[in-house]
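re: ur question from yesterday

yeah so i grabbed the chain u mentioned. its 523 aa long if i counted rite. heres the sequnce exactly as i have it in my notes:
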Amino acid sequence: MKDKVVNGMQIFARSVVVPVLFLPIAGIILALSSILSNPTIVGNGSFLINVGKFIGSGLWPILINLGIVFCVGIAMGMAKEKKAEAALIALFSFLIFLGANNQWLTLTEKLVPYKVTSDLYGTGQTVILGFQVIDMGVFLGMILGVVVALVHNKFCNKEFSGAFGAYGNTKLVFMVLVPILLTLAVVLSYVWPVVASGITALTSFINMSGSIGVFLYGFLNRFLIPTGLHHLINTPFLYSNIGGELAINGKTYFGAVNIFLAQLTDPSVKMFDPSAKYLQYGMVKIFGLVGAALAFYKTAKPENKIKLKAILIPAVATSVLAGITEPLEFTFLFVSPFLWLVHSAMDGLFEAVTVLLGARTYGPGGLIDFVAYNLPAGIGRTRWPIFIAVGLVQLPTYFFIFRFLIQKLNLKTPGREDNEVKLYTKKDYKDKTSKGSGEVAADKGSDLAAVIVQGLGGKGNIETVDNCFSRLRVKVTDASKVDEPALKGTGASGVIKNGNNIQVVYGPKVNGVRNSVDKYLAV
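ran it thru and got these structure tokens back, copy pasting raw so excuse formatting
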């Protein structure tokens, strides 16, 4: 049972990443539109103001309709095959639910009267794509996406013979879903208000916990990174009402990210909402891990420092600029889990301090994100210099604490290994597989994807392949066939096994790796 639960959480966390990968792009473009539409930057009366507003108007429909985005993205991400059909059926399903739920509220005379959408704020109802329905935020999309995926995976290959042949496969999936969706539209109109009360209580607890709540959020968000489940911690705070609700110019925005962006594009907002406390977890990416890397270098054996420098510099640059930390964090995660615990605790602590000092910054990513979002917002509205000041304290703190613990506990962090760490090459792997397990080695002219697939146990062992910002996420049939040394020899900085869910950490190049693997598997 435990393995099934963990496996299910892994699959869901992997699927949530599918839509999340695209949202930062929309956010950055909105930040650009804010710059162009700000009179203090481009000048009063500039034609760029209307250009900025035009760009922003084109992007906002994505962020205020995240329910449908998550519904389609999760269904596609969880589908084992025929992903395009799963996405289309998810769209149909979302629309069916909206129509049915609206009609049920009408028949039961539960519709709340309103003149403008903002009148529905706090009533438990909202308007989505013109339908007045129960207000479930992104959770509606998440629930429907999971339901669609489960039905799709069960029936998408079911065929009928004779006259009913046209109604098999994915058409059957749609037919099975219709009564399920109609039932959910009725049931959730009664169940969700109770769930919403629980969510409100959770939010109130975290908010009342003050700095302790922020610390726990930051700690768990960092500590769970090795499992890949950290998305289950931050996503609800970033994109649902767990992370806050705020009405701006007649529209209600849910989640820390959407609230920040809505305020960013509204120059009348003088001080950003406190929900920004859930956006501070990027500080360690820009500052803390730089201090950790310096500690690794200072405590390394003299003969290893040149080689270590070549590993650390690109890893640090990736963390600072792009906010992708795994290439650096995985250099010590498996060597010293205790150091990872300390790292997670310090991250949560510095997030709490930053919020306590009054910062309202956008800081989940690296330096590029930080500049793009906070500079257009201005110092007065975000107090971003506080983030920088705390970060400048965080860097030496990480350095001294990491150096002390490494030396005191004689931790075998990078550069301090007793034996030379040898990364397997493609040739090493071919020799190993041809002499060892009896499996056929990759041909001489095969590319890196062949080695990766072989390291994952071969084509027959791979069920699904996905990726997030930095990891290749693979569902395999038999985890015992996965060859970790071989995968690390392909340039991976770490391999994580959670049951049959395998995560191979490649950093920013993961998209190219995913494409190569997909092409190889398609042959």
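noticed a couple things. The radius of gyration is 25 Å. also The longest helix spans residues 170-208.
anyway ttyl
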